[in-house]
Design a protein that fits this description.
Blueprint: E1 9-16, H1 22-28, E2 34-41, H2 51-63, H3 65-72, E3 79-82, H4 86-89, H5 92-107, E4 111-112, H6 114-125, E5 130-135, H7 139-151, E6 155-161, H8 167-170, H9 175-185, E7 192-195, H10 203-213, E8 217-219, H11 220-231, H12 243-247
Parallel strand pairs: 1-2, 1-3, 3-4, 5-6, 5-7, 7-8
Helix pairs in contact: 6-11
Length: 248
């Protein structure tokens, strides 16, 4: 017997309760026979006004992840997709591995996490050594992201933390701000640009940006869903979101 709607795959999607971007963006990538089942990780709408308060608020999310895993596993998904990124970078490559193992040990199914998915995407393009990245985070969290990428052999040339004032404020960062930030990050010393922070909507813009800067621009939501599809043997091309889903 197979699920009537998810006859190919049922994905359990985990995201903060304040996140309003992951669910619609992942649904934009959904293929026939694949369904997304969103489980909200409870978190207050933190007023992240400093490095310390930002980091503390992300740890609240981390502490509630397993409850969200237990909830979504009641619908018996085949695989999990992590729609929350900050804590998947904490502690470098080792921390990312430990976080992924924690989820998989509880769920007894595989999971695609944002940090490792971005690394896999960069390696899929090939020839990328120097990157720049943007986030809605505060500088302390960007430091963790930088350490993670450096652990995986990439040089982080520069980064910009957009410092959203609240969790819901991340989704209110407008397209022009993202365009201006991409242009500030770009340069001849950069092979690719990465966007992290799953509540920052950049999937379509990243695909368009590749056309004008002539190099990879990877949005974390695109990378994570791409990774989940490919990890489950789904090879279809999806157009409109950049070369990652079209060519790899």
């Amino acid at each position: 017997m197979t699920d009537a709607c998810g006859w190919r795959l049922k994905f359990g999607v985990l995201g903060p309760s304040t996140n309003t971007t992951v669910q619609p963006e992942f649904d934009d990538l959904r293929l026939p026979g694949i369904t997304n089942h969103y489980s909200r990780i409870y978190t207050p709408n933190a007023k992240a006004i400093s490095n310390d308060s930002f980091m503390a608020a992300t740890m609240v999310i981390a502490s509630n992840v397993i409850d969200a895993v237990k909830s979504v596993m009641t619908c018996e998904p085949d695989y999990l997709v992590m729609g929350m990124s900050a804590i998947t970078f904490y502690g470098g490559n080792k921390g990312a591995d430990e976080f992924q193992k924690k989820i998989e040990d509880e769920a007894k199914v595989g999971v695609s996490v944002g940090s490792h998915s971005c690394t896999a995407a960069l390696k899929a393009y090939g020839g990328i050594k120097r990157i720049a990245f943007l986030s809605p985070y505060y500088p302390a969290a960007n430091t963790e992201v930088k350490k993670y990428f450096e652990d995986n052999g990439f040089e982080c040339v520069r980064d910009i933390p957009l410092q959203a004032p609240t969790w819901t404020g991340i989704a209110e960062i407008n397209e022009q701000t993202c365009i201006d930030t991409i242009n500030k990050l770009n340069g001849p010393d950069v092979d690719a640009i990465v966007q992290v922070g799953t509540n920052l909507s950049m999937m379509r813009l990243a695909g368009e940006a590749e056309k004008w800067i002539k190099k990879p621009v990877i949005a974390i939501n695109t990378a994570t869903y791409w990774h989940a599809l490919r990890a489950n043997g789904v090879k279809e091309k999806i157009y409109g979101f950049g070369k990652l889903l079209e060519d790899f």
